[in-house]
Predict the 3D structure of the following.
Amino acid sequence: MTPATLIQSSKRIVIKIGSALMADEKLGTARQDWLNTLAQDVAALVDQGKEVLIVSSGAIALGRKALGIDYTDRPSSISLEKKQAAAAIGNVEISKAYAKAFEPFGLQTALVLLSPKDTEERQPHLNARATLLTLMSHKSIGIINENDTVATAEIRFGDNDRLAARVAQMIEADLLIQFSTTDGLYTADPTQDNTAKHIDLVESYSDDLMKLAGDAPAGLSTGGMKSKLIAARIATTAGVHMMIASGKINHPLEALQNQTKATIFKASDKPVSARKKWISSHVKAMGSLIIDDGAIKALQSGKSLLPAGVVKVSGEFEHGDPVEIMDKNAHKLAMGLITYSANESRLILGHKSGDIADVLGYSRGDELIHRDNLVLQ
């Protein structure tokens, strides 16, 4: 498995561009010449019948100059209000830069701003998916960014690495390419350790692997290798291959197809179903259930969660909301869409399924969470 063969075999591709590649941090402008070469590479893929979406960072970076924010200020040091205002300005600049880059190839671009709820809540998820699929069917290049203008710290993806993974998951992409300022994952930080070795292929995840990753360096970036590994888990679990490759050179896609070095994260051989992909992608559960040992064994054997096995209900949620399922030591076991509201769940916890109608005066079913709506962690 090589970068070239992955690209050749993929029909639907998501490309993520980081802020440090998109924006000249000193000038506060788009790196238009580089972007033009990327557009030429993407146009070549479209000519081959491939469908391509781009997740692009850079809005805040491109809006800094207008607000007088120094390029040396780390994103974490800038107030939320200034970030939101910078994003509002910068998204216009992003749209203009990509439109200019793709115009010579006769390709229309479209700016799509997404927030976490657009991937977490079922109906917005389906609406966003339909929009993106329609754009690709018309050979339009969707340029996707987080809706930073209205997002708050509590409801943000936090970086576009994870947004790119969720978009790839949403549209059932074959491949996610994360263009970065580095050419992949190493056994140590190659800028600090000259014995560090490049990792070409990742097929499984472990705590040791996550320890290899670092946070974003100073400058425009907000992600770092750690966020890319989290994104890789999201993507590969959904059956999407991912690779991290350097985007510093012109024509980065063309270079990848000429065997440029990259780290490939192999997709799961048994991706979960589309509905379970969506459930497992939730950023924040609305509540939690603590279950007993018997219920744990039932879930692990592929059965549904019944109210008899629940010992505690926390949070406020409604029918159909995502909730976490935990053991008595608060270890997360699963995520699921619950059949009953928080108040209803509290009333029926510990009861046999046959008692639900007597307790509530009605029944939506025997299961608190049906196995089809449940994903083990």
Remarks:
- The longest strand covers residues 12-17.
- The first helix runs from residue 3 to 9.
- Residues 187 and 209 are 9 Å apart (CA to CA).
